Amino acid sequence: MRGDLVRILYDATKDRVKYIFGKTVESYEEDEDKVTVHLSDDTTDTFDVLVGADGQGSRVRRSMLPGVDPYRRLGVHGALWIVPRREEDTSFCKMYLVPGGRMVMYRSHSATESHCYVAMRDDGDLSELYRAPIEEQKTFWARKFADAEWQTPRLLEVLKTTDTFYATESVQVSIDTLYKGRVVLVGDAGYCPSSLTGRGTTGAFVGSYILAGEILRHSDDLPTAFSNYNNIMRPFVEDIQKFNPNFIKYAVPQTQWGIKAIHTLTWFICWLRIPQLMARFSSPDVSPWKMPEYPELK
Prior knowledge:
Elements: H1 2-13, E1 25-30, E2 35-39, E3 44-47, E4 50-52, H2 59-64, E5 71-84, E6 94-98, E7 102-108, E8 113-121, H3 127-131, H4 134-144, H5 152-159, E9 166-173, E10 179-180, E11 183-185, H6 188-191, H7 200-217, H8 222-240, H9 246-251, H10 256-271, H11 274-281
Parallel strand pairs: 4-11
Antiparallel strand pairs: 1-2, 2-3, 5-8, 5-9, 6-7, 7-8, 10-11
Helix pairs in contact: 7-8
């Protein structure tokens, strides 16, 4: 889970890295020698390099590429929060489809908690919603799923008081360059594949590894390091961003008949044991792209 992964990374690096919590990058300026960064607490600091790893809504990217719209919109919006675990909750993901292009999903990740996810199809612009106060966002999602059955009433009851709520639009980030001067982008900030692909964390780890390797290999020539990182990542980014938007229409139908069709098809696929056959005969390495090696990092 995300929290566990963050803890692992922090414990592995805390003795060698200076962490500053509770601040964000508001803006920056750069020259040939340094980047001057303005932080959210009105302080300023200077660095050799600024790495924007601040997610699909990256402020660093906005400052680096002003006026550029980086988003491929997929017409899907979602929210998540944590609920107390019940006896019937397991680590298996359980999904419930609701007419109107909606979905409810949850799974347990610890002895005491379960993760709840809700999603809906909507091609409209909900950007103002995500800038609204959290309570208004919660009200919006509670209203959208008020008529849903199954476990939904239980999950929505927790939504009223939870402090773990998060909502966003599912998008892909597509830009022409991952760097400019002494500023470079990693992970969702530079090439978000969207949560629908399940490959965002993979992209962030691969990108971090390649960027670190190139900086170490060309520590006296940052333009070359950043250019190599940008060029090496391109085919990998294209691979993780492969996604057919039509999949959403079929996976999250608008009508009850469409949901029945999904259930019937899923039952038939499982009855034929197709998932087991695919797992048995498919190769885990499905991409022709090969990870470069950096012995220097060892």
